[in-house]
Protein 1
Amino acid sequence: MRRSIARALIGPLALAAVVTAIPLAASASAAPAGVVVGGFPIDVSQAPWTVALSSRDRFGRTRAGQFCGGVAVSRTTVLTAAHCMADEVVGTPPNRVGDLKVIASRTDLLSTEGEEIAVRDVRVNPRYDVETNSGDFAVLTLAEPLPRGAVVAMAPKGDAAYEPGSQALVSGWGDVTGGGAYPRHLHAARVRVLADDVCARAYPGGPDGAYRADTMLCAGDLAGGPDACQGDSGGPLVASGRLIGLVSWGTGCGRPGDPGVYTRVSDVLRSLGGSAAGPQRPEKGS
Ligand code: ARG
């Protein structure tokens, strides 16, 4: 099924309608403060590895072209979701989007804070499966290095950060209501990693995807609560200072029984192991 791609597409495109109908300030104040219910605004310095993926040609200037999230894992390497780079989202093969950029060190998309860096190369995981959403990651190589310190380490397989109950922070510029309210400021939400059997029961296989414990993890609250949402895809889920997930999919946002599903970063590490596109050791920095 291509539902997840359709949903990723609906988010950014629906935005144009929302923005023309309601001034940004009004939509921001009407929304609960968060990446969906229970989240909160943060300054990018609190999660400096969080970047926005931007194409103004494709998505317009109203939110600086933001259409997905990403995460810096080295000064020239950004991870995002494979589905963010689908033709249906960016309108063309990703290596041909002329103005594909990452926006780094910027809290307010409409400010000139931080920097915009061109993407030099896009590699979509060849094993990404649109039916299940398994393997939902892509590796972007930047034309210029990001600032030192704007990088997060990837948690290796077996790291305690992956254990159920682990507290994690997800950050992005995605929908803060589940109803298409896209903020200009970065938001974050606290979520807990759930056990694989819980995730598998929540998503045995349906139109939105199927849970695969080797390539995914899920997080949130089964009673409903803080969650990522459309527009956050590709962005970071960080626990104990290490990257464990990339926002990937879910049924709705923050709904009871439907936790958020993330690309499992230890599987990204495994896939990249030894390849030229593989992660470099993240620099220590301020
Ligand atoms: N697929 C969405 C995107 O493209 C992310 C959805 C995450 N959903 C969730 N309930 N955690 O932005």
Protein 2
Amino acid sequence: MNLKDSFIDFFVKNGHKLIPSAPVVPENDPSVLFNTAGMQPLIPYLMGEEHPYGKRLVDYQKCIRTNDLDEVGDKTHHTFFEMLGNWSLGDYFKTESINYSFDFLTRVLNIPVERLAVTVFSGNEQIPRDDVSADVWRSLGIKDSRIAFLSDNFWIAGEYGPCGGDSEIFYFRSDDEVPCVFDPDDDRWVEIWNNVFMEFYKSPDGTITELPKKNVDTGMGYERILAVYEGVTDNYKTSVWRNIIKTIEDVSSKSYDGNEVSMRIVADHIRTAVFIAADNAMIKPSNTDQGYILRRLIRRAIRHAKKLGIDINSDWDQRIANAVIDEYKRYYVELEQNRQVVLDVLQMEKEKFNRTLEKGLREFYKRTRDGHDIDADCAFHLYDTYGFPIELTVELACELGLKVDVSGFKERFKEHQSLSRTASAGKFKGGLAGNSEIETKYHTATHLLNAALRVVVGSGVHQKGSNITPERMRFDFSCDHKLTDCEKRDVEDLVNKWIGDGLSVTKEEMSKEEAIKSGAECMFIEKYPDVVTVYKIGDVSRELCGGPHVSNTSVLGTFRIIKEEACSAGVRRIKAVLE
Ligand code: SER
């Protein structure tokens, strides 16, 4: 039995029901592009709703994190991963949960207890130290010197939602002698499993209250525990990658050893592209949101396939995708069902990129005909118009003995990236949306709506997503209640007053820190570059934003809310028009 099956089997034998993985593209949560943790699809049940499968669940959830795309290529980073989890929805709590984890690791996987250490929540002003968990660990034979109390052992997805103290389990992954005293900062100790005791709810205004039930949410990254179990330090050498890497070796006629970085990038990116394209959301490569991530993954994989000497017009990508589908189809039926869809997506994007690649190469050789170095504008043009990664431009220039203004490019790229990152972090207004006159007006109106909601409903309101079309604007925001008719009227009136006041819209560049200090609103501060643009509308609104905006609110017309509805737990959605 493989590790994933053993995990499921263990928890099923202990009264848990296996639930299928939720789609990787969340169905009802516009604030994230992909599920990034096993708990995300279970939020309503952690909040108190009855789950149709009962109170004890076990699952493996497809997750995608693309924030550190650039890190992929090393031994441990992946853009796609599976999170194994067991769940108690108001059933067992700390003692049983810790016992289950301990039994699975030491009895099923036979990991020696001497190689384990744990962290436990040390408490804060509101919540006491978790002595219960520490006592349970002691009773199982974990020595005090292997238990660290930490204040940041508190888990929450994002800024608000179900949350609680957690206890993390570490494994000593090194040939060195296992130290008596556990040091969580020593990276020979790797975190393998997290037990979160979800008993609280943090509201958007920061208040912590008790959830109706005490829940357990555990998460164990499959890739990592598999590497521990199979005794390798390179995740790509685990059994789950074997056939995929073998296929890359075959199509490139090269060995993994010596070509690790490009092979890992191709393997990782094609695998994630397969999972995105096969998801029932039917995402296609594009320049926005999930489609933009899909496009970047495929193009980067193509680029590295080329580096490996693969003929990119051959069926190399189809063969790797088929290997991925065959590896995972037993667990994810949609892969087999959508096999052809996946292959078509890859084929079409490859053809598209190959076309721009050729044109880009022609452009590159035209620009360098007279032996000119590549300036920042040219490098950016090659990136922006032909999808050329800077490394490709540098590589080509090098062959001709020319230089590239890489730092100038990086500056241009940074500005551009604030838009892309924003798009990959959430559906932030405007983002990569169209820039027509009416869309620009909606964009400015979005800032006014955000500000008006904060005045009328309260400062706990924050933007959670938005979408603009030439016909209307849509705005998602944190709020724990349906807006009353009176609130809606007040919001409309306030926005229209600000429009009537003819407020000027100005922009200013500043450091991220200054922007935070100045109280500027934004959705995902950590996703922004160090230097950000803050748009100011009169004295009523300050927001981090990539623009574009009108220069004076007087041109916006009349603002009218056409719909206000629930969007997801704690998030409301407004649709509005400018008339
Ligand atoms: N929610 C926790 C995590 O993602 C445990 O599943 O780490």
